Amino acid sequence: MNFSKTLINWYSVNKRILPWRETTNPYCIWLSEIILQQTQVKQGLPYYEAFLGKFPSVFHLANADEAQVLKLWQGLGYYSRARNLHAAAKFIVNDLKGEFPNNYKDLLKLKGVGDYTASAISSICFNEVAAVVDGNVYRALSRYFGIDTPINSSKGAKEFKLLAQELIDAKQPAEFNQAIMEFGAMQCKPKNPDCSSCPFKDSCVALQKNIVSELPVKIKSAKAKKKYFNFLVFISDDKKTVLEKRTGKGIWQNLYQFPLIETKREANFETLLELAKKQDLLKSVNFELTLYNKDTLVHKLSHQHLYTKFWIVKINTNLEKGILIDDIENYAVPILIGNFIEKFEF
Which cofactor does it need (predicted)? Predict the structure, then answer.
């Protein structure tokens, strides 16, 4: 069986109609690939359309404030993608005079662009024979060839890249790359794939050996750390609240949040009150402190689980350095904070 021919034939019949497949504009392809990292198509599509609407070219994106970019990205998570996207746009405009890199090697110089993204852009936009390897590709290849090398190991990364590069159709690199990614997403799904309708059912090693559910193999990551977050939501007489910008390194860098008290375990009223006074967060004599959520909210990130409580602080004075509650929607916040703002009636 000719693997690439069968794959491309499957793609021609089964591919989804998506806006980034209607263009070879490198800006659009780059934008779609960054958005779709760690994100499903149905979630990423509205963001792609919103970004193109707000920033129709790399020049518009480069000239935007980072706060604008982060606000538009809000809800997608992995905010370093947005910061890198903005930095790369500035590099393209300021250092490359607005000319998008047109080959794999130069694309790798863009902040936030790795092997996969560079391969996707160079093949789709410039017809370069550079095979993509993402989660969908790992899954499809490991099952078809029966490969049990862990995909999140350096050995696995090299092995699958070499294999994909051997399989890619040199005459149709863009079609092949899009086909194998689509095949992994739509046909060779992570759970309960419909192997009976698969064009490779007669030659798939995993299906023949009945080990489809066991592949691909992944080394288990370290157990997620537990953190305990307590956010103080101030509400003043002059209809203001307090938001702080996170400046330290981390996934929420440059996003805004309510004043935070982190504890080693879940905090009760007395503990929280004592810590707030120690950290000089409760300066007003006249305030009312209440817990908003009786059940602790658990916000799961890839490397840590945040056990979160929101504490409402009503103060009977004005907040000189606060922001108007009516303006809170203008600030880019983590989805954890955004969900609270959406539910809470100030």
Answer: [4Fe-4S] cluster
Q: What distance in Å separates the CA atoms of residue 77 and residue 38, rounded to the nearest whole number?
A: 9
Residues involved in catalysis = 33
Domain 225-343 sits in CATH at 3.90.79.10
Question: Of 61, 98, 101, nearest to 82 (Cα)?
Answer: 61
Whole-angstrom Cα distance, residue 274 to residue 267?
10
Over the stretch 173-187, which tens digit does the pLDDT of each residue have? 999 999 999 999 999
pLDDT band (50, 70, 90) for residue 23: very high
Percent of the chain with pLDDT over 70: 99
> What is the CB neighbour count within 10 angstroms for residue 7?
23
What type of residue sits at position 291? L
CA–CA gap between residue 108 and residue 130 (Å, rounded): 13
Q: Which of 156, 135, 151 is nearest to 217 (CA)?
A: 151
Q: What integer pLDDT is reported at residue 297 of this predicted model? A: 93
Model's pTM, two decimal places? Answer: 0.86
* Closest alpha carbon to 260 in 230, 240, 282, 283: 230
pLDDT band at 250 (very low <50, low <70, confident <90, very high): confident
Who contacts 65 (Cβ-Cβ below 8 Å, separation ≥6)?
none
CA-based R_g, the chain, Å = 24
Q: Spell out the residues 6+ positions from residue 320 whose beta carbon is closer than 8 angstroms to its own.
A: none
3-state secondary structure of 17: coil
Token pair belonging to 297: 């909210």
SS3 category, 133:
coil
Give the distance from CA 252 to its chain's centroid: 12
pLDDT value for 1: 67
Task: Tally the residues of the chain.
Answer: 346
Please give the CATH number for the structural domain made up of 3-214.
1.10.340.30
CA distance 323 to 266: 29
Q: Using alpha carbons, list the distances in angstroms from residue 209 to 46, 54, 194.
A: 40, 50, 16
